[in-house]
Design a protein that fits this description.
By secondary structure, the chain is α+β, with helices and mostly antiparallel strands. It is built from eleven helices and 17 strands. This is Phage major capsid protein, P2 family.
């Protein structure tokens, strides 16, 4: 780290210390501190700003590490009538009556920046913003990756064995399979372990599968919610956007650009999100998915490590992935779209 960069980095450390009510020397010497709630909220805002998807779901602060889910988003019906000559009127919980709990797991977002990178940034007036932005972007991507692929919370994680962060936390899809098995379709033919889509199959196209999934797996009180979307892997969307022209073409296909702009599959808005598993469809509303972050429990310390020519930034946060209402979900996995048979060439006379 050159002299000018060192000055910029020291100014950055001074700002971090002031924001969190800590002594500059304590922070500069690698002391661990608890991030102030107002600064934690700023960090969360920076993460949200880097991800359109995270802005569409719920990312909320919670006081307790474990507890009952907040039951945000999808609401239960409440309209009723009571003959008050025989009994008193009773209120209804506006949220789902289904019991649902969460448990936050410590998640470490430990990173480093090499001196060469810091030296190249030092000349810019937004040096501090660049340092923070890069980390916020990665936290956002990691949260999405965990939400779709997480299956466990290992004491010590292994990114080599779990490149999609499967062992960092239990994500939404895993919890749906674990807690709402009746709402998950894994196969059409018993013991086949797959859902094949194409001519001659139960589902002739992806639209038929999505429509049936919504009608058969989601209760009537949630089925026609206009916020329902079909989240799916990019492999399935590619087949939807560029379908083969055959006798099984979906009714919604009017023109290529119309399908892409509307992104509708089986009558639902289609959503493609990074790291969503291939061959999978999830029907729900985006506000039925949440990430809970425990307030006042973000801990951080920074270390200048000259022997490795880098600055290390250790940050931990307690987080949980929550499906607010398991009644308002339906999922299909192991989906394979079969190729249409090649046209038969006419026999020469």
């Amino acid at each position: 780290m050159n002299k000018f960069t060192k000055q910029k980095f020291n100014a950055y450390l001074s700002g971090v210390a002031a924001d969190n009510g800590e002594d500059v020397a304590f922070v500069a010497n690698g002391g661990q501190f608890t991030v102030e709630p107002t600064i934690q909220q700023k960090l969360e805002n920076a993460v949200l700003e880097s991800s359109d998807f995270l802005k569409r779901i719920n990312v909320v602060m919670v006081q307790e590490m474990k507890g009952s889910a907040l039951r945000l988003g999808v609401l239960s019906p409440v309209a009723s009538r009571t003959d008050t000559n025989t009994k008193a009127r009773e209120t209804t919980d506006i949220h789902s009556l289904q019991e649902n709990t969460y448990s936050c797991e410590q998640t470490n977002f430990d990173t480093h920046l090499n001196y060469a990178t810091l030296d190249s940034w030092a000349k810019f007036p937004d040096f501090a913003a660049r340092v923070g932005k890069l980390k916020a972007e990665r936290i956002a991507l990691d949260r999405i990756m965990i939400g779709w692929n997480g299956t466990s919370a290992a004491a010590t994680t292994n990114r080599t064995s779990n490149p999609l962060l499967q062992d960092v936390n239990k994500g939404w899809l895993f919890q749906i399979e674990d807690k709402a098995k009746a709402r998950v379709l894994k196969e059409v033919e018993k013991s086949s372990g797959k859902i094949e889509i194409g001519a001659g199959k139960t589902y002739k196209n992806l639209d038929a599968l999505v429509f049936a999934l919504k009608e058969d797996f989601i209760p009537a009180q949630y089925r026609d919610d206009t916020k329902l979307v079909a989240i799916m892997g990019s492999d399935l969307l590619a087949d939807k956007y560029f379908p083969l022209i055959n006798q099984e073409k979906p009714s919604e296909i009017l023109a290529g650009d119309t399908v892409i702009s509307q992104k509708r599959v089986g009558g639902l808005q289609a959503v493609s999100v990074p790291f969503f598993p291939k061959g999978t469809v999830l029907i729900t509303s985006l506000d039925n998915l949440s990430i809970y972050v425990q307030e006042g429990k973000v801990r951080r310390h920074l270390k200048d490590v000259p022997e490795r020519n880098r600055v290390e930034d250790y940050l931990s946060s307690n987080e949980a992935y929550v499906v607010e209402n398991y009644e308002a979900v339906a999922m299909a996995k192991n989906i394979t779209i079969l190729e249409a048979p090649a046209p038969i060439s006419p026999v020469a006379a």
